[in-house]
Write a structure and sequence with these properties.
Strand content of chain A: 35-45%
Strand order of the largest sheet of chain B: 2-1-3
Shape of chain B: elongated
Strand order of the largest sheet of chain A: 3-2-4-5-6
Number of helices of chain A: 4
Radius of gyration of chain A: 27 Å
Shape of chain A: globular
CATH architecture of one domain in chain B: 2-Layer Sandwich
Structural class of chain B: mainly alpha
Distance between the termini of chain B: 116 Å
Strand content of chain B: 5-15%
Oligomer: heterodimer
CATH topology of one domain in chain B: Fusion Protein Consisting Of Minor Coat Protein, Glycine Rich Linker, Tola, And A His Tag, Chain: A, Domain 2
Number of domains of chain A: 2
Helix content of chain A: 10-25%
Helix content of chain B: 55-70%
Largest sheet of chain B: 3 strands, antiparallel
Distance between the termini of chain A: 84 Å
CATH topology of the largest domain in chain A: Neuraminidase
């Protein structure tokens, strides 16, 4: 008999071979699946209450849970839905936690050490594999317990997202307390979650524009304590401070260069047109950068130190421009969306430019522009949102929010994707001008 | 055809030619008259003369067209009161004088005499021709009689030969018939044999055809099954892919350029029992995320058509955005 023609011999051969391979040698034949995309959902995690210890009442697990959930990248299992309260991996029955929907769980304990120190032990577990993927101990005084909890959050955050956590960092802001003759302006340092506040300066006159030095040891700010604006730099730890600029006219908007050696400041001199200058902190040498018969202010450095972003109304409405950090550099306009863009702040990774933008409704909101693509998006939806400041991991922006006319301003955070926002711990009076400090080494 | 009839025919042809020639001549003369006439003036004198056929009887019966074609002699006609014809017109002479009439009569008589002589000569020539023809006819008849006798003799001989030939042919036919009968019987036998062979061959061919068709159908069915299995297989793979992609919470560090391979162990039913990381250029977050995704996708959807679950699965995580 002659061979019969086959319609799709190759296909048949392939399938026959494939099927036969499965059947005959399952241990060696393997089907390949390629995954090219995923979802951006928050990661479900359970932070089980830590074993009790004699502390000041700090709930370490609660601090961690608040940190993680507040970042927008995690969703925490409420305590009342937890199947158990294990404090070590050995006590965990993983199937229960898997059934509860948590991919990961944190168990730990606070252990008192000789000498009054405390140790925070934690273990990050993958409930699906049953493996421990991070475990560590932080020790410190009882007063540093919250900070220890933030450090645990940092480890968990980095282990699961791949991004360095910025929970154990600090912020500076200006608080306004009292009214009338009793009004006080305060320069405050606090943990990134708003707790653990420390007053480092108080004045009857306005304090503005705090800025962290790159090493986190200094803060520069503007104070009107002598009835005139002046720029000061102050050591955070000791309170030691120096006035670095008290020239005629405006002295404002200090910004540290990435190497910490210079301040970009705004000076108006006698001309009435504020310009951007570079002030060398080692020798007080002043270099003028901008030269435009218009307002030029709010300098912000690029992370590589090559450029200064600033606000200028040279085109009529305030917009953001960029100029090289050396004299005579050309100026380039950066923002074109909306009629009002001001208060630039460059993300530490150099990818994003945050700013205050006035949208069509007349509200001032926080917008972000991708510096590579020019893509722009508005992140917040308040009425008057101001002073954006990036977290050192570039994942979150802190800003001042004035909820309504006559209402005190508060601080809030928003993830750079705009998905998760969080208001910080309420404080008495109004808070404004937040500045997110660097990673603490 | 006899020579007589040939002669008759030539005579007829000659007379026909003569008659037609006369008609042509008459037409030509008429045309010439018409061309040279002064036009259609109603007052023109008619120069033709009505001739009664009876007046020609005495001239002769031969259908000689010549006298008829001649223009009639001018008749005494009263001059017309209408304007005289043009000078150039040859017709329409002045009225003849008595001398002229006498001369014309004389000429007519002369002409009649000539014509009678001519008729007589013509008659004599015809009689002579008829005599010649009669003699020829007789000679031909004699020759024909001789020829007929000879032909008859020849026919008799031919008939005798034909009879002989017919008898020979008959004999030959009988022989041939016998041979043909034999041949036919032989041929019939051969045909029967051939038919049987053909029938057998056809049966064999039909059987082969049926077998081929059955085989082709089986092959087609197998191909259809294979194609269906292929579609189902692709669909199944797509299901697995979709399930794992939906379960993969992609960390920010899982950027294009990252490629990680997971070897996944399965049990019948599709549950993931083990995951081992192969080559991977992702960070710890990526590694955790892909393992978690695979476990979260467990159990995987079952394969189609009762194909057992593969024990091993290779999953390549290669984010494109």
């Amino acid at each position: 008999m002659k061979p019969t023609p086959r319609v799709a011999p190759l296909l048949r051969i392939f399938l026959v071979v494939l099927t036969a391979a499965w059947l005959a040698s399952p241990a060696q034949a393997q089907l390949q699946i390629q995954i090219t995309s995923g979802v951006t959902n928050p990661v479900p995690i359970a932070v089980v209450p830590f074993a009790e210890s004699p502390t000041d009442g700090t709930d370490v697990a609660d601090v961690i849970q608040h940190d993680l959930a507040g970042s927008g990248r995690f969703t925490a299992l409420p305590r009342n839905k937890m199947p158990a309260t294990p404090t070590s991996a050995a006590q965990v029955k993983f199937t229960d936690w898997k059934a509860a929907g948590s991919d990961y769980m944190v168990v730990g304990q606070v252990v008192p050490l000789p000498g009054g120190q405390l140790a925070v032990d934690f273990n990050l577990l993958n409930t699906l594999t049953g493996q421990s993927i991070a475990r560590q101990r932080f020790t410190g005084s009882a007063a540093a317990l919250r900070n220890a909890a933030h450090r645990v959050s940092d480890v968990i955050y980095q282990t699961i997202t791949g991004i360095r956590g910025a929970f154990a960092t600090r912020i500076a802001y200006v608080a306004v307390a009292g009214e009338g003759a009793d009004q006080r302006f305060q320069l405050v340092i606090a943990d990134a979650d708003g707790y653990n506040q420390h007053l480092i300066l108080e004045s009857r006159f306005p304090i503005m524009s705090p800025a962290w030095s790159p090493d986190g040891q200094w803060i520069a700010y503007v104070s009107f304590e002598n009835h005139l604006s002046a720029v000061y730099v102050q050591r955070v730890q000791s309170g030691q401070r120096t006035c670095v600029s008290m020239r005629a006219g405006i002295n404002g908007a200090p910004a540290w260069s990435p190497d910490g050696r210079k301040l970009a400041i705004t000076l108006s001199g006698d001309s009435g047109h504020p310009q951007i200058y570079l002030l060398d902190l080692s020798n007080q040498h002043l270099t003028r950068l901008t030269d435009s018969p218009s307002i030029n202010t709010e300098a912000a450095w690029s992370p590589d130190g090559r450029y200064i972003y600033f606000t200028s109304d040279r085109a009529g409405e305030p917009q953001i421009y960029r100029i090289g950090a050396t004299p005579g550099s050309p100026t380039q306009r950066i923002t074109f969306t909306d009629e009002y863009n001001a208060g630039p702040h460059v993300s530490p990774d150099g990818k994003l430019l945050a700013m205050v933008t006035r949208d069509d409704s007349g509200h001032y909101r926080i917008g972000v522009q991708n510096l590579a693509t020019g893509d722009f998006r508005v992140l917040t939806n308040g009425r008057i949102d101001q002073s954006p400041s990036f977290a050192p991991n570039s994942a979150t922006i802190m800003y001042a929010e004035r909820p309504g006319q006559g209402q005190a301003g508060i601080l809030a955070t928003i993830s750079v994707d705009g998905l998760t926002g969080l208001s910080l711990k309420p404080t008495k009076g109004e808070v404004r001008d937040p500045a997110w400090g660097p990673f603490i080494q | 055809m006899s020579s007589e009839s040939v002669r008759d025919r030539w005579l007829s042809i000659g007379m026909s030619v003569l008659l037609h020639g006369s008609l042509v001549a008459l037409l030509a003369l008429g045309w010439w008259h018409f061309r040279n006439s002064p036009g259609p003036a109603p007052s023109l004198p008619i120069n033709a003369t009505v001739v009664d056929a009876r007046t020609l009887k005495g001239v002769g019966t031969a259908p000689t067209p010549a006298p008829q074609s001649k223009p009639a002699p001018p008749q005494a006609q009263p001059p017309q009161a209408t304007p005289p014809p043009p000078v150039t017109q040859p017709e329409g002479p002045p009225p003849p004088t008595p001398d002229e009439l006498a001369m014309r009569e004389q000429a007519a008589k002369e002409e009649a005499r000539h014509e009678a002589e001519a008729q007589q000569q013509l008659l004599a020539r015809q009689q002579a021709r008829e005599a010649r023809e009669e003699a020829q006819r007789q000679a031909e008849a004699q020759a024909a009689a001789q020829a007929a006798a000879a032909k008859k003799a020849a026919q008799a001989e031919e008939a005798a030969q034909a009879r002989k030939l017919a008898e020979a042919k008959k004999l030959e036919a009988r022989k041939k018939a016998a041979a043909a009968k034999l041949a036919a019987e032989k041929k019939a036998a051969e045909q029967r044999k051939l038919a049987e062979e053909k029938k057998l061959a056809e049966e064999r061919a039909a059987a082969e055809r049926a077998a081929r068709v059955a085989d082709l159908q089986q092959s087609l069915q197998e191909d259809e099954r294979a194609a269906a299995a292929s579609g189902a297989l692709a669909s199944w793979q797509s299901e697995i892919t979709s399930r794992i992609q939906n379960a993969w919470i992609k960390p920010p560090t899982a950027q294009p350029g990252i490629e990680c391979v997971l070897n996944v162990s399965l049990v019948p039913g599709g549950s993931v029992t083990g995951v081992s990381l192969g080559r991977c250029n992702g960070d710890a977050a990526v590694r955790q995320s892909i393992q978690t995704a695979v476990y979260n996708a467990s159990p995987l959807p079952p394969p189609p058509n009762g194909i057992p679950f593969p024990r091993q699965l290779i999953i390549i995580f290669k984010p494109t955005h």
